Request: fold
Amino acid sequence: MPRMSMIEAIRDAMDVKLGQDDDVVVYGEDVGYFGGVFRCTAGLQKKYGTSRVFDSPINESGIVGTAIGMGAYGIRPCVEIQFADYIYPAYDQIVSEAARLRYRSNKDFTCPITIRTPCGGGIFGGQTHSQSPESLFTHVSGIKTVIPSNPYDAKGLLIASIEDDDPVVFFEPKRLYNGPFDGHHDRPASNWSKHPLGEVPEGHYTVEIGKAKVFREGADVTILTYGTMVYVAEAAVNETGINAEIVDLRTLMPLDIDTIVQSVEKTGRCMVLHEATLTSGFGAELAAQVQERCFYHLESPVVRVAGWDTPYPHAQEWDYFPGPARVGKELKAMMEA
Amino acid sequence: MPRMSMIEAIRDAMDVKLGQDDDVVVYGEDVGYFGGVFRCTAGLQKKYGTSRVFDSPINESGIVGTAIGMGAYGIRPCVEIQFADYIYPAYDQIVSEAARLRYRSNKDFTCPITIRTPCGGGIFGGQTHSQSPESLFTHVSGIKTVIPSNPYDAKGLLIASIEDDDPVVFFEPKRLYNGPFDGHHDRPASNWSKHPLGEVPEGHYTVEIGKAKVFREGADVTILTYGTMVYVAEAAVNETGINAEIVDLRTLMPLDIDTIVQSVEKTGRCMVLHEATLTSGFGAELAAQVQERCFYHLESPVVRVAGWDTPYPHAQEWDYFPGPARVGKELKAMMEA
Amino acid sequence: MSDYGPLKFHVPEPPGRPGDAPNFDGIEIPEAGSVRRPAVDSKAADMKELASTMIRVLNTEGEAVGEWAEGLDDDVLLTGLKNMIRVRAYDERMMTLQRQGKTSFYMKCTGEEAIAVGFRAALSKGDMNFPTYRQQGLLLSTDYPMVDMICQILSNSRDPLKGRQLPIMYSSKEHGFFTISGNLGTQFIQAVGWAMASAIKGDTKIAAGWIGDGSTAATDFHASLVNASVYKPPVILNVVNNQWAISSFRGIAGGDHATFAERALGYDIPALRVDGNDFLAVYAASKWAVERARRGFGPTLIEWVTYRVAPHSTSDDPSQYRPKEESSAWPLGDPILRLKNHLVARGMWSDEQQVQAEAEYNDEIRAATKEAESYGVMGSGASPKDMFDDVYKEMPRHLREQRQKMGV
Amino acid sequence: MSDYGPLKFHVPEPPGRPGDAPNFDGIEIPEAGSVRRPAVDSKAADMKELASTMIRVLNTEGEAVGEWAEGLDDDVLLTGLKNMIRVRAYDERMMTLQRQGKTSFYMKCTGEEAIAVGFRAALSKGDMNFPTYRQQGLLLSTDYPMVDMICQILSNSRDPLKGRQLPIMYSSKEHGFFTISGNLGTQFIQAVGWAMASAIKGDTKIAAGWIGDGSTAATDFHASLVNASVYKPPVILNVVNNQWAISSFRGIAGGDHATFAERALGYDIPALRVDGNDFLAVYAASKWAVERARRGFGPTLIEWVTYRVAPHSTSDDPSQYRPKEESSAWPLGDPILRLKNHLVARGMWSDEQQVQAEAEYNDEIRAATKEAESYGVMGSGASPKDMFDDVYKEMPRHLREQRQKMGV
Ligand SMILES: Cc1ncc(C[n+]2csc(CCOP(=O)(O)OP(=O)(O)O)c2C)c(N)n1
Ligand SMILES: Cc1ncc(C[n+]2csc(CCOP(=O)(O)OP(=O)(O)O)c2C)c(N)n1
Ligand SMILES: [Mg+2]
Ligand SMILES: [Mg+2]
Reply:
C-alpha cells in the first residue's frame, strides 16, 4: 500500500472526489495555480481545470458564502480557509447560514459543503497561525466538526465529509502534515513514510464521520483526545509507563459517546487533552459529559490538559503547547488521586 | 430609591458615564436619534449631541472595529449590537483584535471598549432574535463576559464595564428588560417596579466584574445560572420545594469560582442552567470545573439543563426554552440520584 | 500644528425629522425617457453614467417613452398590475392578522411592489432569487399557494417551515425563492455563489441577490461585489433603496452623496439606477440585466430607487423618526397608480377593472386566510416533535436523546 | 431557453506564469506631470479622474515635473533617500538572520520602500499609522531604536513585545505605529475609528490605514470605506497595490479592469492613484491627503502602484507562480534608483555619497544586530513567565492558577 503524508492523503481525497463527481469543486486563497500554501491542492487545477479548482479573493466570508450558494444550487464545494485563525470572518456565514439552511427551510435547501482548514501550533507561527478554534463550532447546531490525526483517517474522513449532505468543518492539524509529532520538538522530526498510519489505500474509501477510534488500549485511565495530541498522549504514556487507553475522537460533532463511556467505565479515570485554550474548549464538553454519564465509575475527577488561557505566543510556543512532560505529570498526579 | 426597568437602568448607566467622562461615546444601529430598537439609548443623543451618541451603518464588524480604533486612541466607546444573533459579523474583530491588543503589543495599546447586546429568547423572535452566544466569548482569552439579571446589577455592571480597561461583552437578557420572567409565559408579565431588584440608586455606583451573587440561599443543591434563568430557577425551586441555593454568576469571565466551590461543597449537588444550546455551552465549562474542584463533595453528577441543540425555533419557543417545569423535573431527579 | 483648528465630527442627518416638512430636494429625478439603453454586452466602463442617473419610462402623462420603453410586452404589464394589487391586498390582510394576535410579526412592502413583481416577470423557471423580507412580490407573482404563505405567517400545523421561522421568512426552491435569513446581507454572496455554480455546470440559469440600502453597509455586500467582479457569474445584484433602514436614512449607509449603483463601478460591474416605482422601467431594466447575465456577459448591479411607505415592521413606529407626511410627499409616486394610469390611458384597463381586481384579490385572500386559519394560528399549530428534525440530515444520537428527554 | 448557450465560468489569470515572458501591457503609465493637482477641499465627484490615472512626478530624465512637483522640500528628499537605503539594507540583513536560523520568519518590502518612507515624511508627531507587515519603512523613518526592531525579530529577552508576536509585527504607539495584526484588513477599520475619535475629541491628529491589493477583498475594507464615507473622519486609506497577494495576482481581488482607487468613488471618498515607485509623487500625494484630512475635509483613499519584488515572505518561492524576470521588467523601476538619479541630476547627491550611505547603514545595522543578538536569538530569549501577563490588565485567578501549574 502506498505511504502518503497527510498532505498527500488530503490531496488524494480531493483528487478522488474531483475525478468521481463533476459536482465537486475546490477553491480557496492560493489554492488554484499555486496549489495552496501547504500544497494540499498542488496539481489539481492542472488536472481538473480552472472551473473546478481555483483561487479566491482574500475574503473568508465570501469563500464560505459562495460555497453555501453553490451547495444550494446542488453542487459540492470543498473550500480551504488558509489558516483556522482566519476562519472568523466566515463565522457568520457558518453559524447563521450553513448551519441553519436545512432546518430553517425544512430541508427545502441544504448545505453539502466542506470547509478545510489547517489548525494547531507547533510550527512557530505565532498567535495567528496556531489556533485551534474547534469548540467554537461544536456549540453550533447543524455543523459537523471533524479532525483527523493521520493520513489514513484524513483521506477517508475528507471523502466522507465531501459526500456528507451537511456542512462539515474539517480541521487539519498542520503539525501532523508531514509526520506524527509527539511534542518533542527538540528531537528529529519523523515522517509518515515510516508510520503504519501513513499507509493509505488508493482510490475511494471512507472513514465514518462520528466514530472515534481506540488508538491505544489500556486499563488504568482513559485519555480523550484528537489531532496532534494523540501522539503527545502516546509519548506521555510511553514515558510514564502508565497503562492508559487513548481514544482518538476523530469527530467532535456528532460525538461518539458510546466509545467514550465504554472506555471510561473500564478504566475509571479520564483525562481530556487538547491544544486549544482551556476555558470553554471542547474538553469542557467532554468532561461535562463524562462526569454525567460515568459518575459512579469515576475514581477521580476528569482532568483537563489544554493550551493555557492566553493567546498562542510565538517564542513561548513550547511552554504553551501541552507537551508530553505536562501530560505525563498530570497523568501521574491522576493515578495518585 | 427610584425603581427602574432594566432598560432604564442600562440607559442610566450610559447617562451617568456620558455625563462624567467626555471620553465615553455611545453608538450602534438606530442608537442615535431614535434611541435604539429597545430604547436603551432614548434621549441620550438629545442630551449629549451627535458626536457622543450616534447611529452606525449596518456593519457590526465596523461598529466593533471603529470602537477598537477609538479605544486605541484613548477614549471609551460603549457600542450596541442590535441583537446578539448579529454579533457574528463582528466576531473576527472581537476575537482577533479586541481580545489580543493588550497582549500582543505588550500593553502598548489597549482596548477599553464595551459591547452591549440583547440576548436570549422568550419574545417570539425566532431563530435570529433569540440566541445566547456567551460561551463563544468565554473561550476567547482577553475578553470579559458579563450578563446581569436585574436592573441594579445591570447599571452597576455596565458602569464597571465602561470603566474597565479591557474589552467587555455585555449581554442583556432581553426578556428581563421590562420585568423578571420566570418562564411562565402564560401568566401575566410582572415588571421591575414591583421588584426589590428594580431599586436602582441614582448616580454613580459599580458592581464588581467577576463576582457572583448568591441569589437564594439553600442547603441541598446548588443551581449555577445567570440572566433570565435566575428567575426560572427560583420558580422551579418554589414549585418543587427543593431547598436549592441559586448562584447568579453575573460575570462568566473571569469566573467567581470561589463562590461556586463554596456553594457546591456545602450542598453536594450541582445543576448548571442556561438558555443557550447545551453542547459546548458555558454550562460545559461550569460542569467541568465543578467536578474537578468539588469531586469529593459531589453526591451526584453535575446536571446541565439548557436549550436543546437545535436552532431556536419560532413557534416551539416554549418547548425550546428551559422553563420551570423542565428545571423542576431535573431537580427532583437529581435529589433522588 | 497650531494653525490647524480642532477637527469636527460629522454625522449625517436626514433632511427631515418629525415635525419638519418632508424634503426630497436631494433626490434628482431626470425626465422619463432621457436615459439611453446600451447593448447588453456593454462594458461597465462604457456605461458609467447609468449608475448616477435614473432610468424612467413613464412620464407625467403616463406615457411610456424613450429607449427603455421599447419591446415591453403588454401582457406582462397587465399581469404586473394585477400582481401588485394582489401583493398590496395581501400585505393589508396580514397586518390585520397580526393586529388580531394571530401572528407575532409582519413586514409590508407598501410602495415597493413594482420592484419584486416587475423583476420576477423578467425571470425564467429555474432562476433563483435570494430575497430579503421585503420581496413577497417575488413569490406572490408565481403560482406558489397563498394558503401556504399564510400558514407560514401563522406558524400553524401546515406551515411549510414547521413553525421554525419567523413569519415572512418563506422558502420555496421550486418557485425560485431562497429561504430568507434574519441576518442582513448574508444571502447576497450566496446568490453570487449560486450563479458561480450555474456557470461552472454550464447551465443557463441565473441568480438574483437582494439587499436593502441600509444593508449595503454589511460585510457581505463587499464580498459579493468582489466575487462577482472576479468570476463574472450570471447574477443580478439588486439594491432596494427605499431611503430608510429602520430609523436610519440612506446617509448612514454612505448613500447621501454617491448612489448605491455607483458602488459597482469600482468593481468593474455595470450598474443601472432605476425608478423603482415605475413598473415599466423596472421590467425593462430587469429584462436587460437578465439577458446580459444569461448571455454570459456577467453580473449587473441595479439600484431600485423607491420609498418604504410602511413602518419597518409591526414592531416599528416611523412617526418617531421621520416626518409624518414624508411618504405622501415621495416624488416618485405610487407604483400601482402609475401603472394603472398608463394602462387606462392606453385603453387596456379601466377604473372598474381596477375595483373589480381589488375585490377579487380581497376575496381570494379572505378565502385563503380562512383556510389557513383552519390549520391553527400562532401558538396552536407547530409541534415540538418537529423541533429536533432537520438539524442534520440524520438525527444524531445527542438529539435523539434530547427529544426523548423532552418526551415527544 | 434553448437559444441560450451554456454559461461559462470565468477565472482571471495573470498575463504571465513561470516560463512566460513578463507582460505589463495592462499597466497604463501616463506621462509624468500630466495629472492635475486639485485643491485639498475638492469634492470626490470633482476629481474622479485621479482614481483612474497615475500621479507621477519624475520623468524619464529624472526631472520633477507638473503640478505635483511644486513645493516639495529638498531636505525631505535627501532624508527620504537615506531612509529608503536604510530600509533596504535592514531587509537584507534580517533575511540573512532568518537564513542563519536566528529568527523564524521575515518579510521584505523590496521595491516598495518609497511608499512608507515618503508617506511618513508627510505625517506629524501624534498621527497614527495602522500598518501591514510591509511598512517597516514607517518605523525605520523615525527614531525608533533599530535594536528594538531587531530584538522583536529575534524574539529575544529584550523583545519589546516579549516574544509574543511573530517577527515583523512591531508595535510603537510613541512612534505612531499601531500593533500589527496577522489578520488581514482588520486594522483598516480601526484606523477609521481612531480618526473618528480624534474628530470627536476636537484633536488635530490624523490616522492612516494600510492594506494590500489582495486584502482589499477582505470584509473590513468595505466597513472602512462605509464608515469613512459616513463620518468623514481624518483618515488616509492607503492601498499598496504591489500586484501580488502571495500567489494571486491583482485580478483575484477584482483589480484587473478597475483600479483599486476607483472603489472609493462609489463611497463619495476622493481617491488618488499614484506611482508608488516615485518618491516625489508619493511625498506630494501624501502631503495633499494629510493636509486635506487635517483641515477637516475628510478621508482620502490612495492607491500606490508598485511591485512586490521580494517573495511574499521567507516561506514563499515566487518562481512557482510568476515569471522569473517579472520583477526586473516592472515598468516603474526602482524607487531608490529613481530618487537617487533625480538628486544626482540636481547636484544634491553623488554616486560616492550613495556608496557611503549604504556602507554607513550597513555598519549601523551590523552593530545593531550584534547588540540585539547579545540579548539572545530565537528560542533562547523570551520567558514563559511573561506568557500569562497582559491577557488582561489584572491577571485573573484562573491565569494565576495556570501560571502556578506551569511552575513559573
Ligand atoms: C446583521 C444584522 N444586523 C442588524 C439587523 C437588524 N435589522 C433588521 S432590518 C434592519 C434594517 C435594514 O434596512 P434596509 O437594508 O434598508 O432594508 P429595508 O428594511 O429598508 O427593506 C436592521 C438594522 C439584522 N437583521 N441583521
Ligand atoms: C484574514 C486573513 N486571511 C488570509 C491570510 C493569509 N495571508 C497572509 S498575507 C496574504 C496575502 C496578502 O496580499 P496583499 O494584501 O496584496 O499584501 P502583500 O503581501 O502583497 O503586501 C494572505 C492571503 C491572513 N493573514 N489573514
Ligand atoms: Mg431600506
Ligand atoms: Mg499585494
Residues D 212-214, 242, 244-245, 308 surround magnesium ion (ligand 4) (CB under 6 Å). Residues 47 and 270 of chain D are 7 Å apart (CA to CA).
